[in-house]
Amino acid sequence: MASTEADAPGRAERLQGLDAAALAALEQLVVQSQWNQTAQDWQLFAREGRIHVVRDAQQRIVASGAVLPMGAHDAWISMILVDPACRGRGLGRTVFEACLQDLEGESRTPWLDATPAGEALYRQYGFEPLWRLARWQREARAATATLRAVGPARADTLAPLAELDAQALGQPRPAVLHDLAQREGSHLLRDAQGFAVVRHGRVAHHIGPLIATDAAAALRLFDQACAALDGRVFIDVPDAREALRARLAQAGFTEQRPFARMRRAVGPARGQTAFIHAIAGPEYG
Length: 285
Known about the structure:
Layout: E1 12-14, H1 20-33, H2 39-48, E2 50-55, E3 61-70, E4 74-82, H3 91-104, E5 109-114, H4 116-123, E6 128-138, H5 155-169, H6 174-182, E7 187-191, E8 194-200, E9 205-212, H7 215-228, E10 233-238, H8 242-250, E11 254-263, E12 276-278
Parallel strand pairs: 4-5, 9-10
Antiparallel strand pairs: 1-2, 2-3, 3-4, 5-11, 6-10, 6-11, 7-8, 8-9, 9-12
Helix pairs in contact: 5-6
């Protein structure tokens, strides 16, 4: 049946409160897109940032986008999702523009990780690629070791790691790091030169962020995490990390899809990119 004007989705709006119905609708968008985010991710966006949505005539959420402020000057845009039945109507662009306007109102520099299709769209809004990365995936297999995680991820444990993370990324995000590390089922791995967070996702374990000041430390952390995980595993690795990419292939990972780290701003980006061996995920940077 052809859609009518009355059935057409409306304008983007900022979600006011994350009640059970809204959370269920957002989780369904993730399922429909076969992404890995959980209810805890949406709750983090609602608590620390803002969620923008588009509703249809029946007030059902059919598109989403999220903004997550980082520090005083930057913010991340992510979770641009559209109900498959409503795709092809420009709703992704609509909700992305709402996210962008949100940040323009605060004079924040927007960042994002884009798929190839998204990169073409975001270039139209003045975003430029900084570097490239890819998602790698390993299917489920038996674990061969036990994670030797740092004890409970307390604030005092996480504080120096959050400082290293901010140095690498060029913008602080302690609330994000604390949330990811302190979730039930998460593990915080520590090395003298870095750290890694391993957490549960909807369909796979996720390794990241993996931040280390040298490649050898990154490989030690990856090896420890990889050996202890028995389910499917995702990790998002910059293309320039040749040693880790080689280790991924040796460990049975395959490259799934590329991304581009993008920013809309003039001048060089801040941060020690060489410290980033795996990102927290395209939704967090």
